Model the fold of this input.
Amino acid sequence: MDPDLSRISALPLWQGKTEITPLGGGRTNLNFTVKDGTGTYVVRLGEDIPAHHVMRFNELAASLAANKAGLSPEVVFADKGITVIRHIKSKTLSEADVGRPDYLGRIVALVKRCHIEVPLHLRGPALVFWVFHVIRDYAATLEAHNSRYLAKAAEFLELAKGLEAAIGPVELVFGHNDLMAANILDDGQRLWLIDWDYAGFNSPLFDLGGLASNNGLSAAQENDMLTHYYGAPPDAGLLHRYYAMKCASLMREVMWSMVSEEISDLDVDYAAYTAENLGRFERAIAEFKQRQARLPASA
Done:
């Protein structure tokens, strides 16, 4: 039997016959569904990935806190490199779903609850996920691997200096930091937030920028998103900081994929993912520069 399946089968929590099915979609771990005599569960297999700032103790702590806050499914078992979560019968959202008027406000409310309520339940050490530190660290990793992207990484480091300055001081919240559509579930009654690999204290603008850039939101949808989150339409200053963080979020996603090309042995076409997100980043940074050029000199 496959070693992963053997490990899952041997867990002490199963009752009766088990049915194990691979579950696709993971880019930093392997996922399976398991049915036994008591119900259906999701099993996640994955070790620490320091190059990606993924530490499983942190993922577990965030998952437990998010469950206590009512945002995420129950963790029923955890051991080194393995987590078992209660399965939620639900629809996994698509990118197109995220921008729909009947979803966007609910998703933003879910994200805001994450920012405010999850840290109230968090226990033990916690990580900070500051995108510009991640970008600098990714550049060092690419240099260590003599990556074919070294020239692009150097260009990114220069751009990041300006983006970090444009954002300025930030409010600190507890971020999910990986707001892909696939990490949001709809059970027909409510939304759930899953997969806490990158969770940590951060600016709310990072989650908002990631939500927009990962799901192709239009400028009008971004304005609606910011209005939902802040309770009023965004002013010019907030928009400037937001678009800078959106660019940083995309830059980090591109560099995540570049680094994955070097270090990951999962069966994922990282080169294609790099190219896709590089295109998104180049469009976003061009738009940001145009917006910046139109700002008053005192801004």
Remarks:
- Residues 69 and 190 are 14 Å apart (CA to CA).
- The chain has ten helices and ten strands.
- The radius of gyration is 20 Å.
- Strands lie at 19-23, 30-36, 39-45, 75-79, 82-86, 91-92, 173-175, 184-186, 191-193, 200-202.
